Amino acid sequence: MSASLLNKRAIVTGGSRGIGAAIVRKLVEQGAQVAFTYSASPDAAKSLVDELTATGGTAFALQADSADPAGLQAAIRQAVDRLGGLDILVNNAGTLVHALIDDFSQADFDRTMAINVRAPFFAMQEAARHMQSGGRIINVSSNVAVSAAVPGASVYGLSKSALTAMTRSLAHEFAPKGITVNAIQPGPTTTDMTSGMEDFILGMVPAGRMAHASEPAALVAYLAGPDAGFINGAAVTIDGAMTA
After folding, report:
1. pTM flag (> 0.90)
2. What is the reported pLDDT for 159?
3. Type and span of the H or E element at 38
């Protein structure tokens, strides 16, 4: 365990699986005390907590559906109470519905925007009430905010473009308070969401491989750390030159 985030208090939304779980692991590895939310994967959440506490880390899970702003804000307040404050917010929870426009339902459109755009907004609103100077907010956007990779991702791309734009605007609002707001924009990453799609995806990535979940997690940890205090309003793409 390194000490770059020693005693920092963090909450990660959607932290039980995939990139979110890798972010939780990395923050704990660097000394942070971490709360994370999950929606529909209690077994994965418990397994992650057990794994991290067994190695001496501090982590706990809170059930919250990011589509419910009031419930998400209540989970953040609960985390703040248990942690004794808040230094880092990582908005990672997201959803992807892949469908062409003729097949896209209004319900799927509304849920995508609720989880990928509305939830981060209200999470940042609540988190900022508890942060002091030196606070860090990191939003997990996507490289589709830079370039559309395939047909059928229009709504997902819209939501992630909105999240990146919101990141830049809120950086201006929070900078006078000493709080930074940045985004990472991962490309194809090996998680359960991309299982079975590797052959299709790899043809689009000049690097010839997909990212390991630990790589975007390491970028989040850097942006949350002491050396990133003057990085604010940035959107850092991590996709092996896919959108270069």
Report:
1. yes
2. 98
3. strand 33-38
Query: pLDDT tens for residues 182-206?
Result: 999 999 999 876 666 677 788 889 9
Contact partners, residue 207, CB within 8 Å, separation at least 6:
240, 241, 242
Residues of the chain with pLDDT under 70: 1-2, 193-197
CA distances from 217 to 142, 204, 236 (A): 14, 22, 13
Question: For this structure, is 156 an active site residue?
Answer: yes
Domains and CATH numbers, the chain: 9-238 (3.40.50.720)
- Note the pLDDT of residue 221: 98
Could you please report the per-residue DSSP string of 194-215? GTT-HHHHHTT-TTSSPEETHH
Residues 110/97, Cβ–Cβ less than 8 Å: no
Which structure tokens are listed for 35?
Answer: 């709360």
Q: How far apart are CA 209 and CA 225, in angstroms?
A: 28
Catalytic entry in 36, 156, 174, 222: 156
Distance CA 95, CA 65 (A): 12
